[in-house]
Design brief:
40% helix; seven-stranded mixed sheet; five-stranded mixed sheet; alpha/beta; Rossmann fold
């Protein structure tokens, strides 16, 4: 098995990076909502027992505690299941963090459909829609372990609130000719016929779809849009102008997330056909994550067909 065929849990890269950074910077602390295990923070707690605060299942309080720690000069990483961290504490995220420009790093764990059979209450398919509309809040969706490490380090270096969206699903390591940079899309594959724009767990799916298209003589550009806010508008405009058709793919609702952000830019600058792949305005059925990915078409073959459909529309 090659390195790219292995699957990695990005929470491991997150935790290791945070532990290494905390060893060098005493300002870094962690706040969790009874989620030491699911946030993979056991190692951090063992190494820094006085720098991890467990508030229990109290997400609103957790965000407020994070804001208070930031006001005291610390750099808190507030970690919890994304569905609860965002859904229960949005007022605190809006007021205590975004409005107040608090230097808090929100870490939404097990995002998207990662909780599988636990059902719609635990699926976090609205978190990007909720967070990307808030001024001052940087929103990052890493796609693999290397990008997760770079995103954590970028979040530490950035003065201000950040939302890191992390999955518990295994993903392969990606080829990345460009180093991660906030607000900059990474072009993983060039192409002139259509552009596939994805983030998080669907970036490697988009790359596989591009390989299927190449076998049919279709040249697909692939963009990894890891930063949802600030958005790389220049890369989107270039894709619209140069390939004339775009497919977006995200483990999120089709409303308010990456697809919506791309469509907003396209309609304002260079209108071309856009197809959004995501959860289509519905609550997810109950089933394993792999079942749900098949159900919603988060597969290379489905993205291939979406690309063929959008190419047909541009003619």
């Amino acid at each position: 098995m090659t390195a790219q065929e292995r699957l990695y849990d990005c929470r491991v890269a997150f935790a290791q990076t945070l532990e290494n950074a905390a060893a060098a910077d005493p300002r870094i602390v962690a706040v969790v909502n009874d989620s030491v295990g699911s946030s993979n923070m056991g190692g951090f707690r063992k190494k820094f027992p006085n720098r991890l605060i467990n508030v229990g299942i109290a997400e609103q309080n957790m965000v407020g505690v994070g804001a208070g720690l930031a006001n005291g000069g610390l750099i808190p990483f507030v970690c919890g299941a994304s569905c609860f961290l965002t859904g229960r504490a949005m007022e605190q995220v809006k007021v205590d963090l975004a409005y107040s420009r608090s230097n808090v790093k929100l870490c939404g764990m097990s995002s998207g459909l990662a909780y599988g059979a636990l059902g719609a209450t635990h699926h976090s398919i609205e978190d990007l829609a909720w967070t990307r509309v808030l001024p001052n809040l940087t929103v990052i969706v890493p796609a693999d372990p290397a990008e997760t490490e770079a995103a954590v380090r970028a979040a530490i270096a950035l003065e201000g609130p950040v939302f890191l969206r992390l999955s518990r699903m295994g993903v392969p390591a990606l080829p990345c000719p460009e180093p991660f940079a906030l607000g900059k899309a990474a072009r993983l594959r060039d192409g002139r016929d259509v552009t596939l724009i994805a983030n998080g767990t669907l970036v490697h799916v988009a790359l596989k779809a591009a390989e299927l298209l190449a076998a049919e003589g279709i040249d697909a550009r692939v963009l990894n849009m890891a930063t949802l806010r600030p958005l790389d508008r220049q890369a989107i405009v270039a894709a619209a102008e140069e390939t004339r058709a775009i497919v977006t793919a995200e483990e999120h609702s089709t409303l308010g997330g990456l697809g919506s952000a791309v469509a907003e830019v396209v309609t304002e600058t260079c209108p071309v056909p856009v197809r959004r792949i995501g959860v289509p305005e519905t609550f997810s059925p109950t089933g394993s994550t792999s079942f749900l990915f098949e159900h919603f078409g988060f597969t290379p073959t489905s993205l291939r067909q979406a690309a063929l459909d959008v190419i047909a529309r541009k003619r």
